[in-house]
Amino acid sequence: EVLLRKDIRRHSTTRRTLTRFIAAILIAVSIEGLMLVFKFALDAPQHLWLAVVLLLAAAALMVALGAYVYLGARAEVLLLQHKDQRQEDS
Fold first, then answer.
1. Transmembrane residues, as ranges (predicted)?
2. Around Cβ 26, how many Cβ atoms within 10 Å?
3. What whole-number distance in Å separates Cα of residue 42 and Cα of residue 40?
4. pLDDT for 10 beyond 90
5. How far apart are CA 61 and CA 4, in angstroms?
């Protein structure tokens, strides 16, 4: 991949695929955390902190995904600007 010519479309496609994959994992972790909250609230309240930790991990994953999407979009804009500038110079 290092030796191949970089293609802008490949970056955006990869970013979208990874975003969808992480979003699916995020949904699964969030649902599991909510199920644990209800389970531990009824059966074992002393273990409720485990569900809270899982939900906090899901929240951290959401923040990380947001940062990844934001930075990926900014990088794509910069790549397009660089490509346009290089074409104008030619």
1. 21-42, 48-71
2. 17
3. 5
4. no
5. 32
DSSP summary character for residue 6: P
If one counts every other C-beta atom within 10 angstroms of the C-beta of residue 39, the result is 13
**Beta-carbon-side half-sphere exposure of residue 42 (alpha carbons within 13 Å):** 5
Q: Are 26 and 61 in contact (CB under 8 A)?
A: yes
pTM: 0.76
Residue 42 near residue 64, CB atoms below 8 Å: no
- Quick: pLDDT tens for 35-87: 999 999 999 999 999 999 999 999 999 999 999 999 988 988 888 888 888 88
How far apart are the C-alpha atoms of 6 and 47, rounded to whole Å? Answer: 49
For residue 5, the 8-state DSSP code is P
CA angle 7, 73, 8 (to 5 degrees): 5
